[in-house]
């Protein structure tokens, strides 16, 4: 668990003082991803780098697993915290294997253990260990370098990870792919992760919770659902965007929705004539809504994983979930 208690940072810049982080109180539970979200200059990187003491704290305290980081040896602290910086930061003069082995070598692991760990990590991030072993970073695509950056940060199996816009430089398609892979890895490794982003969609996709900052102050901390359904002030409302109701739909699947609908519970509707507009129970509600809106009858068949029909889902069923009138739903999608 990571805990920020009244944490502040004041930079001395010439004879001016810049309050980059202003009295932050925040809890991040063990094994969860907390996304730090906010516009450029709001203090995300500063807050992150105070956790591994790359930046000294001006006021307050930070605790990792109950320990005040200022009482810990900074070198040991950093070994227990994986750090991925924005521009990947692979060492250009080192091969991929050498890059990933930096921390294990620092920790004095023997060669066999380090080699084994290299292969393990490469498998984990979906790259062939032998194919890339002797290559240099510049011989890899941006997405591949990004994965090496993540693998390197995971090398010594640290319980905590700090990730500063690790996927920021990637184009949207690759980015979504890497985000999904990252979530898949996280399901197995269950690290406590502070993840900086300025992209609301990335925050919704990756965060167990989202902390939104403005000018060094914490505006709101909550689950993506809480943030989207109940933004606490004007700033958060603007930041998440006017389509927050639609974004919220991406958090849920068709299964979540039909669990709340009486005719699905009773199995009514299955006898009706089957048509071509179909969604699977695992489809997210945002996608399902698009299919419904393209259907001439404004409804879709829901099928289970084996493509067996379960029932008919209509536009009006979305009203239950969103509280938004079907006509209005139609207009905000278009
Ligand atoms: N070394 C420094 N000296 C003085 N001011 C600094 C220093 N580093 C950062 N700042 C200021 O502190 C504030 C927060 O900076 P920080 O880098 O934490 O923002 P950020 O949220 O990470 O922004 P970005 O999204 O652009 O990376 C900014 O106003 C910045 O100008
Ligand atoms: Mg930053």
UniProtKB/TrEMBL annotation:
<comment type="subunit">
    <text>The complex is probably composed of two ATP-binding proteins, two transmembrane proteins and a solute-binding protein.</text>
</comment>
<keyword id="KW-0677">Repeat</keyword>
<feature type="domain" description="ABC transporter">
    <location>
        <begin position="2"/>
        <end position="240"/>
    </location>
</feature>
<keyword id="KW-0813">Transport</keyword>
<dbReference type="InterPro" id="IPR005892">
    <property type="entry name" value="Gly-betaine_transp_ATP-bd"/>
</dbReference>
<dbReference type="InterPro" id="IPR003593">
    <property type="entry name" value="AAA+_ATPase"/>
</dbReference>
<dbReference type="InterPro" id="IPR003439">
    <property type="entry name" value="ABC_transporter-like_ATP-bd"/>
</dbReference>
<keyword id="KW-0547">Nucleotide-binding</keyword>
<comment type="similarity">
    <text>Belongs to the ABC transporter superfamily.</text>
</comment>
<dbReference type="InterPro" id="IPR017871">
    <property type="entry name" value="ABC_transporter-like_CS"/>
</dbReference>
<keyword id="KW-0997">Cell inner membrane</keyword>
<keyword id="KW-0129">CBS domain</keyword>
<dbReference type="InterPro" id="IPR027417">
    <property type="entry name" value="P-loop_NTPase"/>
</dbReference>
<dbReference type="Pfam" id="PF00005">
    <property type="entry name" value="ABC_tran"/>
</dbReference>
<keyword id="KW-0472">Membrane</keyword>
<dbReference type="InterPro" id="IPR046342">
    <property type="entry name" value="CBS_dom_sf"/>
</dbReference>
<keyword id="KW-1003">Cell membrane</keyword>
<dbReference type="GO" id="GO:0005524">
    <property type="term" value="F:ATP binding"/>
</dbReference>
<protein>
    <recommendedName>
        <fullName>Quaternary amine transport ATP-binding protein</fullName>
        <ecNumber>7.6.2.9</ecNumber>
    </recommendedName>
</protein>
<keyword id="KW-0067">ATP-binding</keyword>
